[in-house]
Amino acid sequence: MDVDAGHGAALGRALPKPASELTIGRRLRSFLSFQGNDDDPVTVLTRTHRAIHPSADAGVLRRSYAIAENMHRGQMRKSGDPYITHPLAVAQICADLGMDTTTLVAALLHDTVEDTSYTLEALHGDFGPEVAHLVDGVTKFDKAFYGKAAEAETIRKMIVAAGKDVRVLVIKLADRLHNMRTLDARSPASRARIATATLDVLVPLCDRLGIQALKRDLDDVVLYHLEPDSYARIDEHVRNRPGWDDYLSEVKAKAQTALRRSRVSAEVTPRPRHYYSIWKDTVAGGHKVPFDLPRIAVIVDGPETDCYAALGAIHGQWRPVAGRFKDFIASPKNNLYRSLHTTVTGPDGRLVEVLIRTETMHDYSEYGVATTYRYPKYAQDAEASGADQLTWLKRVLDWQQDTTDAAQFLASLRCDLAEAQITVFAHGHAFELPSGSTPVDLAYELGPQKGDQCLAATINGRLAPLSSQLRDGDVVEIFSETDGHVELEPNAPRGPRKEWLGFVKSSQAQLQINRYFDEKNEPGISIADKVRLGRATIGLTLRKHDRGLASEVPLRRLAEELGYPDLETMLVAVCERNLEPDAVVEQLIALVDHPD
């Protein structure tokens, strides 16, 4: 919790100071002072929440905090802080984002099921199914039972849960952000491992959700832990830029004059870049000193056509730099980010970056999937925009079902998230694919059978090799064995080719091709499948006794009595015959018939 209040904290506080700097008592006092010097630590949380949602139920926040504080009482974090400071900080981050009351309640309770005796059934009974689903979605699998597969299976479980409710990922990101801010209490090896995992999976997830207000802080804290020297140099640069504010004020004034002259109503604000963004451009350009161009944002008060009028006004004021214009309004990014980007030669011949967008575009660029929770006025557009924004998540959910190996799933997810995206068109629809994808990748995007039977393709009307790399905007047609458009020789090979694995880019294509060639081997089975089989086995065994279960409460209670961390782990044990189904059912019947 002890963090520098300097640059880079869009949500709450910035980056951590070494844990050794503060005693436990001072840390606790520091935390309480952050909460606003109120005796009741929920006061600031409630105040933040009600500032955005005036009719929010403060009572349920206090009740959930009371349960969390009671269950975590006596537990301490590695930093020496009382454990309750962590869920409270996670809830505060969610409140700063503008999330709804249900999310805040789940954030306060997100570690209770995993780390205390508070059960998921009790949580369900106290706060309902939505909160229970969110908490269960971020609850990790127990390493003692799942070993090395625990991390990958936990991420798979979280992704599947997010398919039903994306707020699972918002809580997870807030949880990781606070953990990263307090990472100094861990060993250097642990810090590097956690920061790298955050950069590989959670930062790209945050980007796909479009929550830039959260991603900026994650980016900066990752840089702080992985590149401390670079972070220090950039920090020194940001704190010592002579005349920077005066220059931006001049740019702002001249931009406003140009906009008024063109009769465009807009607000112009400085838009300083965060540390990671500066570092990335510095490294990419091979600069010896931090590369940090002045930047302004033009927020247009009007329709999106006014953005182009504003662009004309800015280009009329200053000469644009060739090759530095991007139109993310006509072609939104895959996370629905929309804006015009241009770079101009500003006053004194200095380059200035300019972002132009409407107020709605600005809100979505900052908060992504959280926008409709923060601004209920956008709720009517939520269904359409949300469906587009989470297309990538639906794709991941589709191919994760075909992946029995958890490590392979995690590797494929990392690959999918790491790639830049292109949009291509086929059969009247647009498809997003990783940059460098080929017609084979597109064929598998159309369906496993279409991919397996892919024979040829045209790109923009011309026949092209299947290994050809597609470009953004290409129009592609796929020809397969069953189309009837291609004549096959009698002895021509059928199905995918192993050499395709040498050039396909998408996780979907890689998984389907590997699955095709591995199908002669004994099929694997995922933990999710084992849970389903274990549940079905118990159901069938109960039938032999002419019994059934109206709910899972008795099963969860039995899992607790048998010493399993959760019901899913017990069901896996049943599937693997580490627990005999007959013995489990006999104990279950006894538990139901004689609860005392």
Automatic annotation (TrEMBL):
PROSITE patterns: HD (PS51831), TGS (PS51880)
SMART domains the UniProt entry points to: HDc, RelA_SpoT
Pathway annotation from the record: Purine metabolism
CDD domains: HDc, NT_Rel-Spo_like
UniProt keyword list: Kinase, Transferase
InterPro entries recorded: Beta-grasp_dom_sf, HD/PDEase_dom, HD_domain, NT_sf, RelA/Spo_fam, RelA_SpoT, TGS, TGS-like
Transferase listed as a keyword: yes
Occurrences of domain HD (ranges): 83-180
A GO MF label: kinase activity
The organism's place on the tree of life at top rank: Bacteria
Domain TGS: 418-480
Role summary: In eubacteria ppGpp (guanosine 3'-diphosphate 5'-diphosphate) is a mediator of the stringent response that coordinates a variety of cellular activities in response to changes in nutritional abundance.
PANTHER family: GTP PYROPHOSPHOKINASE, GUANOSINE-3',5'-BIS DIPHOSPHATE 3'-PYROPHOSPHOHYDROLASE
Protein name (database record): GTP pyrophosphokinase
Organism ancestry: Bacteria, Bacillati, Actinomycetota, Actinomycetes, Micromonosporales
